[in-house]
Backbone:
């Protein structure tokens, strides 16, 4: 997934910081273009016993019965869903996640998942697949499998469902055997690493909150100050639990209020980012993107809204 946010230079960052410094104190509160039909170049059993051995590199397990809702059905109108840990992922019309396999190829398109592998990872039929929104129609294609059936491809990569995904939104196949990954709308592996420096995630409990480039929740400390200039009162051991968010340029943000969006130098010499002039942090207790374990800690730490306010804090 191409990102323009990362192209901002250090000079641009410095310029943005300089331009926004005066804001504090002025306000109080507030791959391929498409795949092609190709014949299979791998005969059944070409990978020997590896393809039929439970727990092999494909993640296949002969004792696992494929989910009836995921086996052999048309994908229908493909859609793009937001996943807290993975960002944007492709789903079928029923909301089931579509996966890609590292041992396949996209140029030319080729599926390497047959036999028991295909029972655990049912190939998505090409017939009947279309796009609803968020996916370039030209990326859709098909590949002829070893059994002669046509499998859907996105940007050349063959698409699969996972038998252990039993309901819409499940991503149980993500990272299996280090070879299976949810698919991004571009056909690449879904990853929150494609996020800008700061962006907004819609949390199921807290609503719109700010996250960093890794998808980790951003927090505010109520004992800090924003006016007439940013002041962090989290020092020493506090910083081990609440690491500071390093400055990013205004161009490397999405959905966050621009006024008061700046970096400042702490007394310890470290650089820290602010939103609406308030210093921001992440929480060491959050181990994965989408977690909000720091919310309300000590009655002083809260997730940050796009305008810099502490979400859920008592007024």
Residues:
């Amino acid at each position: 997934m191409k990102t323009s946010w990362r192209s901002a230079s250090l000079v641009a960052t410095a310029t943005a910081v300089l331009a926004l410094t005066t804001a504090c104190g002025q306000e109080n509160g507030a791959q391929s273009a498409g795949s092609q039909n190709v014949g299979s170049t791998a005969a059944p059993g070409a990978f020997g016993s590896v393809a039929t051995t439970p727990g092999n590199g494909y993640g296949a397990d002969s004792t696992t019965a494929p989910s009836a809702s995921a086996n052999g059905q048309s994908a229908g109108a493909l859609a793009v869903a937001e996943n807290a840990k993975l960002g944007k992922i492709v789903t079928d019309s029923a909301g089931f996640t579509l996966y890609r396999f590292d041992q396949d190829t996209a140029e030319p398109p080729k599926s390497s998942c047959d036999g028991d592998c295909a029972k655990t990872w049912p190939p998505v039929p090409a017939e009947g697949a279309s796009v609803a929104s968020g996916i370039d129609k030209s990326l859709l294609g098909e590949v002829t499998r070893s059994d002669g059936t046509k499998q859907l491809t996105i940007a050349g990569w063959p698409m699969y469902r996972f038998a252990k995904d039993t309901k819409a939104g499940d991503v149980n196949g993500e990272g299996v055997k280090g070879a299976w990954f949810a698919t991004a709308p571009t056909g690449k592996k879904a990853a929150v690493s494609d996020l800008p420096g700061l962006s907004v995630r819609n949390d199921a409990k807290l609503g719109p909150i700010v996250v960093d480039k890794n998808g980790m929740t951003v927090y505010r400390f109520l004992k800090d100050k924003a006016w007439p200039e940013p002041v962090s009162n989290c020092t020493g051991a506090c910083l081990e639990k609440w690491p500071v968010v390093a400055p990013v340029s205004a161009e490397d943000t999405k959905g966050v209020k621009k006024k008061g969006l700046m970096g400042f130098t702490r007394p310890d010499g470290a650089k820290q980012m602010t939103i609406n002039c308030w210093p921001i942090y992440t929480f060491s207790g959050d181990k994965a993107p989408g977690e909000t374990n720091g919310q309300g800690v000590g009655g002083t730490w809260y997730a940050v809204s796009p305008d810099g306010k502490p979400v859920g804090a008592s007024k």
